Amino acid sequence: MYRFDEIKGYEEVIQHFQNAIKLNKISHAYIIEGEGGKGKKRLANTYAKVMQCQAHGIEACDACRSCHSYDSGNHPDVIHIRASKKTGIGVDDIREQVNKDVFIKPYVYDYKIYIIHEAEKMTIQAQNALLKTLEEPPIHVRFILLATHTHTFLSTILSRCVVIRLRALSQTCIEDYLEKDLGVPDYQAKLYASFARGNMGRALALRHSESFHEMRKDMIQVMTALSNNDKVEAMAQVEVFEKYKDEKQDFLDLMLTWLRDLMVIKSLGDLEPLIHMDNKNLLLKQVPYLSYNRISSLIEGIEQIRKYDRLHINFTLLVEVMLIQAMNSK
Ligand SMILES: [Zn+2]
Predict the structure, then answer these.
(1) Ion ligand 1 nearby residues (CB, 5 A)
(2) 20 and 107, same structural domain?
(3) Does one domain contain both 27 and 149?
(4) Would the pLDDT of 311 be above 80?
């Protein structure tokens, strides 16, 4: 179940882990940092599984007792610590589950590995308690802290951990995985990948997200209205933008992918792969009615909205300006 060769992207992180195992230089503590969906848990579990594997290679053998018990979800020497909903991870959690426990030797295997989930939710007292163990960890103990960000950590914790920051995956990497490994049709893979912001979990969630599909339908409605060349109808679309006020980045991103397709058809014909391939006929229909100028004006408008949004300028007003400018460009 957990194997390095099944993890997409993050080659340098995996290489770092595998080198550490090979050279017998496994750090006592790691922090894997990245937003939800990026694969922190998978990386941590795989690293822990390979550390414990009785074949002592740089990949899980999947045949030994340790690998079997890891995959069954109850490895005796890998301890998961989780935040409770209300209080996060408190000092008592660390004292009881870590500090008192670390001195007991592993039951069966080489290491005792503590995986702390949502470690950014440790209170300061909890971090101070953990620090005591991190300062002089028993030889068989390893820690892997998973966190969406590290700014809540004490600098003394950070300085004792190897911090691994998960970068955004490339669009091609996500697209390839969806297409080749999961059999998602190429145009859909392209759509989800271009929308996932380098986050594989997000790409996977989009596949089954009804709200995403509804948003896309609404965006297409807006673009259809804009291609009808009717100013009143165009201005009425402000309502749709308002519906997505709280998800404006997503909505604008989606609109950009449509504008991108229109540009591709205009300059290259429909030979290039389109993101919205399933709506190719509609795109082809809109192309003659949307001039280069109007498309550029919309792209500029979206950039302006993003820029001014940071300055907290009224969103509706910005959308209206964008639509007026677009409809005025010939
Ligand atoms: Zn094994």
Answers:
(1) 53, 55, 61, 64, 67
(2) yes
(3) yes
(4) yes
Structure confidence by residue, pLDDT tens digits, 72-120: 999 999 999 998 777 789 999 999 999 999 999 999 999 999 999 999 9
Convert the chain into a string of H (helix), E (strand) and C (coil). CCCHHHCCCCHHHHHHHHHHHHCCCCCCEEEEECCCCCCHHHHHHHHHHHHHCCCCCCCCCCCCHHHHHHHCCCCCCEEEECCECCCEECHHHHHHHHHCCCCCCCCCCCCEEEEECCHHHECHHHHHHHHHHHHCCCCCEEEEEEECCCCCCCHHHHCCCEEEECCCCCHHHHHHHHHHHCCCCHHHHHHHHHHCCCCHHHHHHHHCCHHHHHHHHHHHHHHHHHHCCCHHHHHHCHHHHHHCHHHHHHHHHHHHHHHHHHHHHHHHCCCCCCCCHHHHHHHHHHHHHCCHHHHHHHHHHHHHHHHHHCCCCCHHHHHHHHHHHHHHCC
118 C-alpha to ligand 1 centroid (Å): 27
Same domain, 103 and 143: yes
Per the structure, the complete domain to which residue 112 belongs is given by 4-165
Question: Are 17 and 133 contained in the same domain?
Answer: yes
Check whether residue 318 and residue 214 sit in a common domain.
Answer: yes
Number of domains in the chain: 3
